[in-house]
Structure formats: C-alpha cells, structure tokens
Q: What sequence folds into this?
C-alpha cells in the first residue's frame, strides 16, 4: 500500500526532514539560549523573583524576535511537511483506492460504521495541522487520510517511529515480554489504532491471539486494513469510539493504546479508562502509552511542549499533561494499587529508584493496570 | 478519474485558526512563502544533482532515468549535508542573532562608537 514516490516527491520530503531537524535542534536550542541568557535574568531583575510557571515564560518569550521567527518557521515547516506527503498522492490515489477495495478479508477484517458520531475533540480542528484531519471521508472508499497519516507521522517523528512506524507498539511489547514473560493474551484490543502501525507488533508477539483495532477515522481504517493485509498480518479493524465500544464485558486479555489520551478531552479520558476496565477479563492487562506529565519537566521544557497546544492544533495536550493521572485512574474505577504509571525511558534501562525523580527524562509513560 | 483533488487537499488550510507570531501578519506570510520557495529550490537542486551523477556514470539523462535514480549511502550523506549547509545559508540572519545573544562583545553600537571616536 506504500505510495510510489517520484524523484521530486522524495526530494521534497527529504528537505522537509532536514528542515525539521534544523527547527528541532538549532532553533529550539537558540530559543533556550535567549530564554536563559536574556529573558530569564531580565524577568528576575524586574520582578525580584524567577519565573513561576510556563504561562509567564510564554508571555515574555512571545515578545522576542528570535522566538517569533522560531515558531513561525516551525509552523511553516509543519504545514510544508504534510503538503510534501500529500502532493505525491496525486498520480496514484485512484490506484491505491482500487487496491484497497480489492483487499480481501483473508486474514483480518474491516467494519465501517458511517453512523458513528465523531466526537468534537477529533474534528473541531485538524490535529497536528494535517489537512483534512483524521476523519475526513472524501469519497466512497477514501483512503487518503490513512496514506497521508502513515508517511506524515513517520516524518513528524523524524523517523524515530522506525521504518514501519511501530516503535510505540513495539515498546509496549518489550515491556510486556520483560515484566510479564508468561502472559499469553488470547484477545487483544488497540484503542485509537489509526492505520494500525502500532497494532502489528502485537500480531508478531502473540501469534495465537485475535487482534482488534478501533479508530474513529474511516479513511485511516480502510488504509490500515489494506496495509495490514499486504503485510500478511491479521487485524480486525472497526470504526468505534474508545469511550463506548460495542464489545462485550470482559472480552479482552490485553488492551493497549499509543499516544491517544492527549487527543481526547477531560471528560472523554476517564471514560476511555473505564471502558478499558469494562472490557478486560479478570487478570487482564491494560497498557496505555503516552507522553509524560509536565511535572516531570522543567519550566522551559514545559513551555516548549505547551507551544504545541496553540501552534500545532493540539487543544487538549497541555491540559492532559497537567492532569493528576492517579486521580483519573481512580475516577475511572480502578481501585487502589491495581493501576500505576511507569516511565520507559528512550535508550535507557528501565527506571530505577535512583533516577525516578530526575527531571526531563524523555521516554514513553505507560498507564499500566491489572484487573 | 479520482474524486479527490489532491493538490487542493495538500494546499488546504488546516481546520483551526492559524497562529501568527509576528506583530505584522505580512511578515508571517512572507516567511511562510520563503520557506515554500526554499523547499522548491532544494527539490530543483537535487534533480540537478541527479543529472550530474547520471552524466558522471555515463548514463543517458532521460526523465525515466532521473525518476528511477536511487542515491547510494554516500550520495544520501552528501545530500543531507547539502541540506544542512543550505538551511544555514538561508537562515543566516537568525543564526547571527543567536551569535549576538551568545557573545555580548558582538553588540557594540556603531552610533555610540562614532560619538566615542569623535571625542577620543
């Protein structure tokens, strides 16, 4: 299902990757320098105290010409990145759609529900500035959002998702194999699976299991189904809302998600965690993977992350990262001690008591629970 | 023929109010256009690089050969390095502003110095 990129498509995408690297590395470092060398000392001198929160930092930094240029170039780069992927579908979208329609259900399956209401948190704006967003369905059998998302998210992560864009799913598998080596789930659900890239590792890790993926976007699912079949893997995709699915009580042994919490809302998030509990069999495991809470980062890092909320169409991102997740877990019906948060740092050994309190550690945070 | 206008979709505004970071929105517009033009120039430069590499290898320079060209590891590294250098050249004023933040001695005011030297 991978599109056939032309010479110029690849050049355009390669340049966007280089530009992103420049923004992430040079411009971000530059803004930190402006903050540390100029803005922070000036604020302390004028106010007799250091910055107390990221909102104060944001207000002062937005006046700085360097930071303005940084954010402006970053926004332009984000828009150009999606465009560089989308232009190249021009010659091949028909062929890809025809291929997806012919995709048989020999391994997995696809169930689209055109009557499913799309929650506002998904379609009020185009998350990450991806034109058309996750849920646009442009014609019968449309797969465009899936094709754009698959390549675009690879570029968005600067390739860190790996060639198959499955690093998040793979890291949950690694965690499970390490912490629960004898766990052999028979039925697995991935909530908010997008194009299923992060669902595939569960097919490989537990070849005897029935693997399901639910997602709100029909075009993501159609593309994901065709992609998964072409990889020779079996996933049962269905268009459903993770807040309230049509699966029976206690019907899964393992329920996972990869970085979906921050794209929901204050009320939807506990519902998703409660739905996870309803669907799990006794003894079943939940592993939801997400970015870390702001309290784990210093104020400058918080400011950088927070900018995504306003500049990259991620309206729930900062609220989510400020939330008391322990309280949300309890609100969602997980009693004391049955669920917890766990940091799986990038490129490091698992967290130990000695580095647990260290700030600014980058990694995946897992919300883990056993029913 | 497709029902999807891909170019329209690629150039579509993302749903959600677009943030503007400069006091004057025209600055934002010009910078955004500049980055798009920079991208297209990089695409053209890379096509030229492919043409040069085909010529060096004694291959016919046809559209088909250009589109079929796959850079080897060395060529890919060269191209990435060219991107990095090119972006540095385009963003030179931004990097210069940063130098001035890092090194205060680069910020002597010529107006003040003119007065100083007139008296010294």
A:
């Amino acid at each position: 299902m991978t599109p056939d990129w032309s010479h110029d498509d690849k050049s355009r995408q390669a340049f966007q990757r280089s530009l992103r690297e420049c923004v992430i590395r040079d411009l971000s470092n530059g803004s930190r320098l402006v903050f540390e060398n100029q803005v922070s000392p000036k604020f302390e001198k004028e106010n007799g105290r250091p910055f107390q929160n990221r909102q104060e930092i944001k207000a002062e930094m937005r006046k700085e010409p360097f930071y303005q240029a940084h954010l402006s170039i970053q926004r332009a780069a984000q828009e150009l990145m999606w465009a560089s992927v989308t232009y190249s579908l021009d010659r091949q979208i028909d062929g890809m759609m025809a291929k997806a329609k012919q995709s048989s259900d020999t391994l997995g399956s696809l169930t689209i529900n055109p009557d499913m209401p799309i929650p506002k948190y998904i379609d009020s704006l185009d998350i990450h500035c991806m034109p058309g967003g996750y849920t646009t369905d442009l014609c019968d059998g449309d797969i465009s959002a899936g094709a754009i998302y698959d390549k675009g998210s690879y570029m968005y992560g600067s390739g860190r998702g790996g060639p198959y864009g499955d690093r998040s799913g793979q890291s949950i598998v690694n965690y499970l194999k390490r912490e629960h080596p004898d766990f052999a789930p028979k039925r697995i659900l991935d909530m908010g699976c997008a194009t299923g890239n992060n669902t595939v590792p569960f097919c490989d890790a537990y070849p005897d299991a029935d693997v399901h993926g639910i997602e709100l976007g029909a075009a993501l699912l159609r593309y994901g189904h065709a992609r998964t079949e072409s990889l020779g893997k079996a996933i049962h995709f269905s268009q459903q809302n993770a807040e309230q699915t049509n699966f029976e009580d206690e019907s899964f042994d393992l329920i996972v998600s990869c970085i979906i919490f921050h794209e929901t809302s204050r009320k939807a998030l506990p519902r998703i965690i409660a739905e996870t509990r309803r669907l799990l069999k006794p003894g079943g495991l939940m592993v939801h993977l997400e970015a870390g809470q702001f309290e784990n980062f210093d104020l400058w890092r918080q400011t950088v992350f927070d900018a995504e909320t306003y500049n990259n169409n991620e309206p729930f991102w900062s609220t989510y990262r400020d939330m008391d997740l322990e309280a949300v877990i309890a609100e969602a019906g997980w009693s004391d001690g049955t669920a917890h948060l766990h940091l799986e740092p990038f490129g490091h050994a698992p967290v130990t008591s000695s580095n647990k309190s260290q700030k600014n550690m980058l990694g995946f945070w897992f919300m883990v629970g056993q029913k | 023929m497709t029902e999807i206008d891909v170019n329209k979709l690629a150039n579509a505004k993302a749903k959600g109010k677009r943030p503007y970071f400069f006091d004057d929105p025209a600055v934002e517009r010009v910078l955004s256009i500049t980055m798009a033009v920079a991208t297209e120039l990089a695409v053209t430069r890379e096509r030229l690089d492919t043409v040069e590499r085909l010529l060096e290898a004694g291959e016919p320079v046809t559209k088909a050969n250009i589109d079929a060209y796959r850079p080897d590891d060395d060529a890919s590294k060269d191209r990435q390095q060219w991107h990095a250098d090119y972006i540095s050249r385009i963003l030179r004023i931004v990097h210069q502003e940063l130098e001035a933040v890092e090194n205060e001695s680069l910020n002597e005011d010529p107006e003040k110095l003119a007065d100083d030297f007139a008296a010294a």
User: Anything to note?
Assistant: Chain B has a mean pLDDT of 93.
